[in-house]
Amino acid sequence: MYKYYKEQGADGPYFYFYTELNLTYYVAFRNMSQEAFPLNNLYSLDFGEINGLKGKNDIKISSTILNIIIEFLETDPSLVIHFLCDSEDSRQLNRKRLFSRWFAICGMDQWVKYDYDFDSADYNISFIYCSDIYETAIMETEILLTLDVYERAKND
Question: Which CATH number fits domain 4-155: 3.40.50, 1.10.3470, 3.40.630, 3.40.190?
Answer without folding.
Answer: 3.40.630
